[in-house]
Every structure is written in structure tokens, then in C-alpha cells.
Amino acid sequence: MEDRFEKGMKILNITNGEKIEEIFKDFEDIAPDLGRFIVEFPYSEIYTREEVDLKTRELCTVAALTCIGYAGSELKDHIGAALRVGNSPKEIVEIIMQMSAYAGFPAAINGMMIAKEVFKQQDLLPVK
User: Fold this and answer.
1) For the range 93-97, what are the long-range contacts, defined as Cβ-Cβ under 8 Å and sequence gap of 24 or more?
2) Span 81-102, pLDDT tens digits
3) H helix intervals, 28-87
4) The pLDDT of residue 19 is above 90
């Protein structure tokens, strides 16, 4: 039976690629178990459930992080992950725009500016 860490790392390899090590570096000198918890719970237990595909899960995560409004770094990472699992920039923009109705314009504007930063880094502007 595959352990939770390995199972979560498989998903992180798909969604985050080479950026995986950053998760562990950020916490290694203060809370090394937090990196492991991140891998073992959301990525192993939630992201691997079969009822919803990764593409949809990442769009939902982008929506949630946009709505909470204080997770810019995580939103940036998940916008990149959403692109890696097959979402288009236009789909991501639409989801963030929709959040203006639920989280307000400030949250949607902040989310859109983060998306713009990610898209610019990946040479995906202008969004067509």
C-alpha cells in the first residue's frame, strides 16, 4: 500500500513540477512537519479523490484563494498549477471574475493582478 506522503508527492509533481522543493525549504528551519502535513492531507487525501478531476480541483482552489483574499502566494502557485493541469488563462480569468459576485471586487481585483503576474511570467499575455 502506498503511503500518504508518496501519494501526495505524485499529485504535487503534476501540479507544481520543480517548485515542490520550495514547500519544504520554507519550513525546514521552523516547522518541517508542516510541509509534510501539506503533502499528506490536501494532496494525498483530497486531491486524489476520483469524483473530481485535477483541472476542476485547481479551478475551485483558485476560486477559494481569490475569495479569502489573503493568500496571494498560494493563489500564485495554484494559478500556475491550474495552467499545468490544462486550464486556459481565459478559464482562470473567468473564474476570478465570477468571484467578484461572491467575495467582492477588491478580492477579484487582487486575484486578477496575481493571475496577470503569473501569465506575464509564462508569456501568456494578452489573454485572448
Assistant:
1) 93/127, 95/59, 95/62, 95/63, 95/66, 96/62, 96/63, 96/66
2) 999 999 999 999 999 999 999 9
3) 32-38, 54-68, 72-84
4) no
